[in-house]
Amino acid sequence: MKIKLTLLILSLQVFVAYSQSNITNYNWVTGVHRYDYTEATINPNPVAPGKNVTWDFTTLSSDPADSVTFQISGSTPFTADFSNANVVWSEYRKADNNRTVLWHFYKNQFGFEFLGYGEVGVGTNVYSSGKTMLKFPFVFDSSFVDYYSSGGSYKSTVKYDGYGTLKLPNATYTNVYRTTSIDSSSPTKVVYYYEWFDANRRIMFMRKQSNFSATYFLRTPNKTSVNTIENSGIDIQVYPNPSLGTFNINLSDATLNNSIKVYDITGQLILQDDSKLSYENMSIPKSGYYFIEIKLNEQICYKRLVITN
């Protein structure tokens, strides 16, 4: 009896160690998340797939003068060109001539598709045939092939090839999924895309070709844990929104050490204030889309603000 019980316990332990849920949705496409950016040759090589893998990127660093922000929004200056988009990331790089690019996606219960991008001051690149990044549900160790068009014809092979622990300079994430996309327009022109995420956020994204990689990794408020205000019971009110130029921010907890920062769509800091329960009659004179970064103790969230004056 003891032998059977021991075998049962061991079998359960193996099951827990090596089981992983299917990917059924991209839950991280809610809220706003900020990322750091780096361009470098990555060591160790990120291609290691498998079960319970530990991806160690603790040596990553970013140029403080060249940061990137992915901001999820419902509309952009290019909405007319991407009428089907319901998820948008905006990328701002100060060191790259203040370049601002907004990447547009469409998500439904069947998958996640990349539609193209618009660059502020330059124009748009609308894919004549979008790139399918995920299909739901997505089972570990499975893959699919997709063909898309963007000034040329591309083949993309996407695989859910790993799960485990992701270590970054400022945090360690467990229960992380990893997908790999191999895109090619010819046998000699191949780009690898790696994406790490959990049920709540996209944690890191990497584009790698030859010996070069561009990497975006999640910025977090401290080195030991990853906290958000979502579902914490803290009430944050931003009103009126849309606004004619003047708006208010109310917080439900007066004991919190808080700060408020407001950024425009290019990532420029517009307003900043600290340690109040209520921020009243804050004013922005220029119409546009803005993002309010609200820090409460070690927690951060983002709210979208529309000015229509």
Fold and architecture overview:
β19 and β20 form a beta hairpin. The strands form 4 sheets. Strands 1, 2, 3, 8, 9, 10, 11, 12 and 13 form a 9-stranded mixed beta sheet that branches. The protein has a 4-stranded antiparallel beta sheet with strand order 4-5-6-7, with no helix packed on it. A 4-stranded antiparallel beta sheet has the order 17-16-19-20, with no helix packed on it. It is built from 1 helix and 20 strands. 6% of the residues lie in helices and 54% in strands. The chain folds into 2 domains: 27-218, no CATH class; 236-307, Immunoglobulins (Immunoglobulin-like), CATH 2.60.40. With 309 residues, it is mainly β. The radius of gyration is 21 Å and the shape is globular.
Give the secondary structure arrangement, pairings included.
Elements: H1 2-18, E1 33-40, E2 50-56, E3 68-70, E4 87-93, E5 99-108, E6 111-119, E7 123-135, E8 143-149, E9 153-168, E10 171-186, E11 189-197, E12 202-209, E13 212-218, E14 236-239, E15 246-251, E16 258-264, E17 269-274, E18 278-283, E19 288-296, E20 299-307
Parallel strand pairs: 2-9
Antiparallel strand pairs: 1-3, 1-13, 4-5, 5-6, 6-7, 8-9, 9-10, 10-11, 11-12, 12-13, 14-15, 15-18, 16-17, 16-19, 19-20
